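USER: Write out one fold?

ASSISTANT:
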Amino acid sequence: MLLKDLLKELRESRGLNKQELANKVDISRSYISTIESGKVEKPTKKTLIKIAYAFDPEGEENIYTQLLESAGYDNNEAKEEFKKYITELNRSFKESNKFDASVISEMRYRVNKKDNSVVFLDKPYMNLMWLVEQEDFNIYLGYEEDEVLIDDDGNTYGKPLKLDEEDQRSLMSLVANFQSSVISTKQMLKTKREMDELINDSAEYDLIFDLLNKNINSTFDFVNRLANIDKNREIFDVTEYHEEIKKAVEKQDAIKIQRLVRITSINELKNYLSEQK
């Protein structure tokens, strides 16, 4: 099949107009038109791989191979080239660890929890609110109980449980209520974290102030005050740590006292001690 015919067939099968495809591929609408008209018979491989990714982001349909062949390129290494392209896209995402704000908002992507790899999608399928509100696709909820499908060879398969309009409205209500609950819980947790940080900052400031004014009367008192700020410390009983605190107090060095109060691990203390030599 000629490239112009293949591209048009792919585009129309996905329900895309030329501008929508151009936006996905990040090239001009006019260039899409020149390919489909046959004026451009052999676009660059870079353009073809971007087009292929727009239609087949996981490479399951081998569209890049088809595009190369229809444009007159050798397609023997098409799979490897496409895999490398996806790897580079994911590396770029991992290095920046973020999308452009407009891309984030659209939610038209799927991120793998295990390796943070990304597949861009034509619809925000991973957005539950979109899924229950959209009217273009059927929604399924597992399988019918005790209902099966039987093929011509007698093999049985689970019958998908399709939600009707009433089911979908009920699900929409449940999801909306759950969304409100999640938002409320997150706001409460955020407020609690902010309050905890303020309390810790206040406790740290008070401890530093009392050390500078020599209002801490014993090691036991000092350790208790440290534990109130952060009980997950390895240095409570380390002699060198307490000696450094005493030195900083004697020198009235508030910066060193603050740094020492914030030390929680043996390694941090070792680094501090090596800097003092």
